[in-house]
């Protein structure tokens, strides 16, 4: 009986959002774990390059390298995908996402009221893809994320987690730019897109 109680408590703990002071160090410890276990750098965006290099037989110089030596990265990313899939299937919290009342009131002025999923369906769904607002969020936003990742020579995980831990000056600049861009987007540009 005691064993079942502990298991239920553990499942409930896994279903709840973890505070930053627990999730942050766990993410941060990924860097030394990868370095200790195989002298591998942490980064996600490079996996797309490896997939393209393995699947595209063209002689494009950017994809012409020994991608097979980086297959560990593809397994790492697949593990993230698999972990997310398993968590969604077995650990999902089916309650609507809790949103601060002040934020919910502000979002309601933009027509965002559905919090049944982690990402509001009013913004991210097949139906909203064919609206101007949805096009900006999913197509233009997706392109800008991809372009920015290439332009910065890495994504937020590569620069902000791995690069900063190595005290790399370009990663500090990139991370500061990520943060400034995020503040500008959230406070100055996003309200205009939500108004479309």
Tell me what you see in this structure:
By secondary structure, this protein is mainly α. It has a domain at 123-196. The chain is built from ten helices and no strands. The protein has helices spanning 2-15, 20-28, 30-38, 46-55, 71-90, 101-108, 126-129, 132-151, 156-165, 169-194. Helix 4 packs across helix 5 (71-90) and helix 9 (156-165) runs antiparallel to helix 10 (169-194). The protein is globular, with a radius of gyration of 20 Å. It starts with a helix and ends with a helix. The relative contact order is 0.08.
Task: Give the tags.
196 residues, mainly alpha, globular
Count of DSSP strands: 0
Contiguous low-pLDDT stretches (5 residues minimum) are none
Radius of gyration: 20 Å
Structural class: mainly alpha
Largest sheet entry: none
End-to-end Cα distance, whole Å, is 56 Å
Mean pLDDT: 85
Helix content: 55-70%
Report strand %. Answer: under 5%
Task: Give the topology string: H per helix, E per strand.
Answer: HHHHHHHHHH
Please give the count of helices: 10
Bulk shape: globular
Brief characterization of the structure:
By secondary structure, this protein is an all-alpha fold.
Map the helices and strands.
Elements: H1 2-15, H2 20-28, H3 30-38, H4 46-55, H5 71-90, H6 101-108, H7 126-129, H8 132-151, H9 156-165, H10 169-194
